[in-house]
Every structure is written in C-alpha cells, then in structure tokens.
Amino acid sequence: VTMEIAKALALGFLFGWMLHKAGLTHYERIVGVYRLRDMTVIQFMLTALVVGAVLLQASVDLGLAKALPIPPTFLVANLVGGVVFGIGMATSGYCTGTVVAQVGEGRLDALLGGLPGLIVGAVIFGLLQPYVMPLVARSAALGRTTLPALLGVNPWLVIVVFGEFVIVVLYAIGRHEGRDKRRPTATASNSVEAPETNS
Amino acid sequence: VRALAVTLIVLVGLTGAAIDARGQCSSSASSCVSCHEAQRLHPVLADGRPWHGDHGFGDLCAACHGGDPVATSKDAAHSGMHGPLVNPEQSCAGCHAGDAVQRAARYRATVAPAPSTGPPAPPSTLGSSGAAPSSSATANRLLAAVAVGLGLLLVVLVAGKRQRIRPLEWLRAKSWSAIVAGAGLGATVTISEAVCGRPISASGAFDKLAAYLGDALFPRSPYYAYVMRPGITWQVWLMLGVLLGSFASAKLARVARVRWLPDAEWVEHFGRRRSVRLIVGFLGAVLMQVGAGIAGGCTSGLAISGGAVLSPAAFVFMAGMFAGGIPTALSWARLRRGMQEKK
C-alpha cells in the first residue's frame, strides 16, 4: 500500500513538474491555444503522445509491460464530452490537472474557484449520469479498443504515421514562432503578469 | 507558501492515515473491469450482447454477477459469483426501480438457454496489446529496439548541440521548451501505464472525492450506490503529487507565491475583479468535470494517456475539445472587444 502511494506521489510529482515547466499554469497558455495564438498546449500534448506511444509500444514488444489500461471508446460520448470540456477549458483557462498545479504555484483563484468547481461538477455529473450516459454511450460503442486493432494493422504503422504528422506540425509551429520573434510586436507584453518566454 | 504547503501535506497525511487505502493496483475501477476489460483477459463490453453494451458506461458488473469487485486475486474476486439471472428483478431494481420486472423479463427471454454460473473459458486472444499477431512479434521487437535507439540518438544529438547544460540551472529554469516538458510527460505516462497499469488521470480523483459528498447528499442515487464509491484512491495521491511537483518547480524557479494576481490576458478579457475570476473559474471547472465525466476522462486521463495507447476515444475527445473550445475562446475575445468599442 505504501509503495503504491509512493509511486502515485512520484508520478504525480513528475506530472505537476512538467505542467509547471511548460507554463501551462497560465490562463494565457490554455486559452491561447483556442484563440489560435499560443501553440504551447499543442506542442506539449503532441510530444507527450508520441513519446508515450513509442515507449509504451516498445515496452509491450520488449516484454517490459504487463497490460496497458485502454480506455473504452464511445464515439458519441467522447465527442460530446470533449465539446463540453473544451467550452469549460476555454472559459476558465484551467484544465483538470493544471488547476492542481496552479494551487501548487500559489494561485488562490484555483484553490477557491477551480477546485470547488471540479468537485461540484463531479457531483452534477453523478446526478446526470443515469439520464445522460445511456443517451450518448449506447451508440458507436467500440469497447476498449485501439486504432491498430480496429484497422487490423501493426501498431508501429500507426505510430510512425502519427509520429510523422506530429513532427510536421511541431516543425510548422517552430517556423511560425521564429517569424513572430523577428517581428517583436506580435507578442508584446502589456501584462500584469506575463508568462515567461521560452528560452 | 511554505506554511500553506505544510498545512496541506499534514492534512492529507492525516486523511491518508485515517482511511484504509486499499492496495489494489487497479485504480478506481473494480477488479472486474481492470482484469476483464483493461487487461483484456476476457472483455465483454463489446461482445455484442445488448445489456453489456448498455451498461458499459458504468462499473456495474457486480450488480448482476455478484462476486467481490474489490478483491484483487481471481479466486477471491470470483467467489460468491452467481449467474446474472439468479434474481434479475432484484439486480435491475437497484437502478431501474420503476420497471425492473419488465426489464428482467426482457433479459430472461434473451438468454434463457445459457445461465452459466462461472465465467466461460478465456478466449485464445490473450495477447498483451491484442493487436500484434504472434508471427510478427520478433519483427516488432526489432522495430521497438530501432525506435528507442532512434529516439536516444535524437536526444543525444539535440543535447550535444546545446552548450553545456548545468543541471542545477536547468532545474531552476522558469520554463522549459514545451517539447522537452511534453517528452517528460510522455515518459511519465509510460512509467505509469507500463509499470503500474494505470493512466495518468486528473478527473478521476475529483470523481472519487466528490463521491463523499454525493454519497452523503444523495443516498438513493444509483450512481453513488453502485458506480462511483468514494475513496482515497491512487488517483487522489497522484493529484497530491501534482501539487507537490508544481510547487517544487515553482519554488526552485522562485516564482511560487500566494497570489490573487491574474494573468494579463485574463484582465484583458474580464477585468481585475476577484469575484469574476472565482465565478468564471468555478463555472468553467464545473463544465470541465461534467465533460470529463461524459467523455470518460480529461485531457490527461483520456487525451494523453489514452492517445498514447492509440485509443480512438482520445483523438475523438481532442477533436471535441477544440470544436467546443475555439468558438468559446473567440467569442469571449469578441465580446470584450465589443465592450471596449462601446466605451
């Protein structure tokens, strides 16, 4: 039991550390991605996805992993939930994980607004669940499946194609940001508390 | 900040000592779901039988099949199991109080011939990822080695191009490139899923904590009675870790301080009033947690952890996030601009 708690704390520590170092505890950064201004969230998520996909598939193939937790796919529920989540995220500038990271950084609005909001939201979902879930979870339920299993191809094919897509996107973002840096007007700070720029 | 952190740690430590945290390495899910579905030992949710599909949104196996959903060994978990049709009227009535009898009659009619008492023999596809046929296992092992090798080469090349990296300064940096931090999260997700068999998930912890409230306020809710039981689970400890990790990162970078000060763009959108920040943040957080509940996870638990195992759910969820988020963020910005023009 103690070992499990220690593992959870250590992994959480790394998660919180990375969130803070990526600057995702800032309202700007989260909302910026939806205003198509700040691509930090995209860079962070896509890199995490590719690195995770490669390492996880490698550890399965090399016999290092037992069984991976595969979330169930309910296409309608996943999409509807994503839309609601996106609206909340773009409004508050929080994300469920970054609220906690913001509290760690000392932000009182996350402690007194965000955290209670998440708890109340969870209770509201609990009350809605018996009515909402049968509507959205019944159709297009694919079970706990993966893209390679659905397509009937080797997982590495999916990983390589996705990886190349990500590299192109990251490269394009890098080029674009390089242009912005040469024209210093674009991200001028009229700020109360500007986010730190990447070194 | 230090006082705040110490208080929090002590509080949570006390809670942890008071509550017997179960040592199951299978998260908030019942052991039924974690073995049958997550480890794919004998998945049933997509077996085409209507009630499994209909009830797949919740962790409901034990309501009909009996057994011990928190036992971690197979024998213990399966002891006390009964056929799903032993008393379907009672099983259904747990949630469908009004029309349990009709529902039970429908199920009786569909499966009358085969009321099995134990789980059927596991199917032959007991593979690890379930996707790779055994003939290509060696090839995949090779591919895996090549991929990891290429990745290491890339890291060495990139690190070699930089001038000397001083580890202490690196840890004290105010920020890292999002790509470096993202790669760090990818590695974290790998350790969590490959070693512990669990996703790095945020929303699950809040569901578990909120269940204390839900269980107390709504004792008749079938969701809190059967699906979401309260508990200080692995995920909750993970979130405490996030708090500490972010605090450590901010502290080392000398940016940790207790503050109300909002970010520049927030002031631009909504002004400086604290109450506005609290209310909008609260409402946004409510929406997020409801959305995460419907989708089955949040940005970390579904999009990143699920996407890393190539689940279609993760990519559909991300598409939804942007479909909902982009119009929202743009309309907040437009609303603000309109108000400024009026002035």
How big is the Rg of chain B?
25 Å
Give the ordered list of helices and strands of chain B: HHHHHHHHHHHHHHHHH
Number of helices of chain A: 8
Name the structural class of chain A: mainly alpha
Radius of gyration of chain A: 20 Å
Tell me the helix content of chain B: 55-70%
The shape of chain B is: globular
Order of helices and strands of chain A: HHHEHHHEHH
The profile of the biggest β sheet of chain B is: none
Decide which structural class fits the backbone of chain B. Answer: mainly alpha
- The percent range for strand residues of chain A is under 5%
| pLDDT averaged over residues of chain A | 86
What's the β-strand tally of chain B? 0
Low-confidence stretches of chain A: 183-199
Cα end-to-end separation of chain A? 41 Å
Please give the structural blueprint.
The complex is a heterodimer of chains A (199) and B (343).
Chain A: H1 2-21, H2 27-34, H3 40-61, E1 73-74, H4 75-92, H5 96-105, H6 108-137, E2 141-143, H7 147-151, H8 155-182
Antiparallel strand pairs in A: 1-2
Chain B: H1 2-18, H2 31-38, H3 50-54, H4 61-65, H5 74-78, H6 88-93, H7 100-111, H8 137-161, H9 167-172, H10 178-196, H11 203-217, H12 222-227, H13 234-252, H14 264-270, H15 274-295, H16 299-308, H17 312-342
Key features?
heterodimer; A: 199 residues; mainly alpha; two-stranded antiparallel ribbon; 2 strands; globular; B: 343 residues; 17 helices; 64% helix
Q: In words, what does this structure look like?
A:
The complex is a heterodimer of chains A (199) and B (343). Chain A is mainly α and 199 residues long. Chain A has 8 helices and 2 strands. In chain A, strands 1-2 form a two-stranded antiparallel ribbon. The N and C termini of chain A lie far apart (41 Å). Mean pLDDT of chain A is 86; it is low at 183-199. Chain B is mostly helical. Chain B has 17 helices and no strands. Chain B has helices at 2-18, 31-38, 50-54, 61-65, 74-78, 88-93, 100-111, 137-161, 167-172, 178-196, 203-217, 222-227, 234-252, 264-270, 274-295, 299-308, 312-342. In chain B, α11 (203-217) packs across α13 (234-252). The relative contact order of chain B is 0.08. Chains A and B meet through α1, α2, α3, β1 and α4 of A and α1, α2, α8, α10 and α11 of B.
